[in-house]
Specification:
single chain, alpha/beta, Rossmann fold, 6 strands
């Protein structure tokens, strides 16, 4: 297998666990990853994942090992969002593909308009102009007409719109199962063989016995804290 280097851009949209698991999965598959996080993305990463990354060039390490694990971090390069001189900004870098996960609606709008205000958007622009895979993973709802039009524009330009919409036919047992389902979809579109998520085999599971919880079910508590019967 030929090792490829992929670019993962992380914006201020919710759903940073998707980026975390995707980077780890790409490295497990034997590839290298370049990552850049917008200023808004760093705030969301801290809020959702409890990860605080040091400022690049501050003399501290890049913080990747504490976030992704040492084994993954060894194959990841982190670039500042304003580092427009970084290798992923050029088509000669031969990036295997670009994934924006999660992708904010603002980033999506700038990509389809060809307006590159940072390295993340420039990497997406390069993927489009070079005819390389570009996958955006929006995590937004509801979607306005503007959002839908921008997604349509990107699809017509050759990008792939892959919303963070996990399926349930694989009978997930945890939130991580749902996350990995989306990560598996991204890897499939990149043409990367993997075992990150379950695949549909055409077999329906038997109906559970009356009075038992279906697989993956968790009790739901109302706001007042009272347990429903």
């Amino acid at each position: 297998m030929r090792v490829k280097r992929f670019f993962v851009g992380i914006t201020g949209a919710s759903g940073h666990v998707y980026a975390t698991r995707l980077i780890q999965a790409l490295v497990r598959a034997g590839h290298a990853v370049d990552v850049s996080i917008s200023a808004s993305g760093e705030k969301v990463l801290r809020h959702e994942c409890g990860v605080v990354l040091p400022e690049l060039g501050s003399g501290a390490d890049d913080g990747l090992a504490g976030w992704l694990g040492a084994e993954t971090a060894a194959h990841v390069r982190r670039f500042a969002a304003d580092a427009v001189e970084a290798p992923p900004s050029s088509g000669t870098a031969l990036t295997g593909g670009v994934v924006l996960a999660p992708c904010s609606m603002g980033t999506l709008a700038r990509v389809v308009a060809g307006f590159s205000s940072n390295l993340i958007e420039r990497a997406a622009d390069v993927a489009l102009k070079e005819g390389r895979p570009l996958i955006v993973v929006p995590r937004e709802t509801p979607l306005s007409e503007v959002h839908l039009e921008n997604m349509l524009k990107l699809a017509r330009l050759g990008g792939v719109v892959l919303p963070a919409m996990p399926g349930y036919y694989h009978r997930p047992r945890s939130i991580d199962d749902l996350v990995q389902h989306v990560v598996g979809k991204v890897l499939d579109r990149l043409g990367i063989a993997h075992e990150e998520s379950a695949r549909w085999n055409g077999e329906l599971e038997p109906v559970p016995d009356p009075g038992t919880e279906p697989r993956g079910a968790t009790p739901v508590e109302p706001a007042d804290g009272a347990v429903r019967p």
